[in-house]
Write a structure and sequence with these properties.
Number of strands: 7
Strand content: 15-25%
Helix content: 25-40%
Shape: globular
CATH class of one domain: Alpha Beta
Largest sheet: 4 strands, antiparallel
Radius of gyration: 32 Å
Low-confidence stretches: 1-6, 124-131, 234-261, 285-293
Number of helices: 9
CATH architecture of one domain: 3-Layer(aba) Sandwich
Structural class: alpha+beta
CATH topology of one domain: SMI1/KNR4-like
Distance between the termini: 106 Å
Strand order of the largest sheet: 4-5-6-7
Length: 293
Amino acid sequence: MEETKESFTFKGVAERLTLGVTRILENMPGVVDVRLVEREPAEKRSLLSWEQKNTCILPEDLRDFYLTTDGLALTWSVKLDNECVPLGSMMIHSVARLCPLLQPVSLFSLPNAPSLADLDWEEDDTQSGTRNAAAPPHFDSRSRIFEMDSCGGNGKVCLVYKNCAPGVVAQRSDIWFLDRSLCWHLLTATFTSYYRLMITHLGLPEWQYAFTPYGLSPQAKQWASLYQPLTFSSEPNFADPAGDSHLNKLDPTKAFKGKAKTPVLKKKQSPQCSLGSAAKSQGGAGRHGGGRR
């Protein structure tokens, strides 16, 4: 009885935590194996330890999230040819795995080996006097970057603190996406907005690329048009300048039904007209018959 009560309680928490997306996924055609990993809330001392170690203050909404559950792991699959294929993934690292993207240089690395910091050739923002909020983060000490989701190897979603100074506690943060070409793209200004985006996109593959100038890959577009038809659009936008016009243009009523025959309307004739036409036909037959004689 106690186990049943605990499972019922966790189910209610999971519904509120995922905004009911688990139930939505379970009712979708072809979706199987919806899994939500149960996690205990993070301890306050672990959050304080993280802040002291990294000289950063966690955003209030992210702190509340960790005090509810220490990370998120929700996955779902689809059934193709009697085989379960993993598809959706909604991941947020635990506090222990919220590690800096730029790890310290190892003693065993080559002395002249290039690093990500070598990509930052621009001038310091504080010296140049530019503090643009949409300016991309830096790979050096000017930014403090922490990986929240590895995105299955398609990129990284990161919690980013910009305009940092050595020894000064960083407080303001944004959520950025680092693609596979090491280019930055701003997703949201708050963790709550990012969380809603992730839930809305159902954790579909490469959904973060919808907020980049080059957009989704053709395969990701097909998955999005199948499982996210209300929010996915193939019309040209900032994320899809090409605008593949062949997607979402299929009309099932025309493609999966036989060709409809156009009915031919016949005009009604009056009795006199019909008798006259019959007489003409008989007279014509008599004339043709006389000719044959």
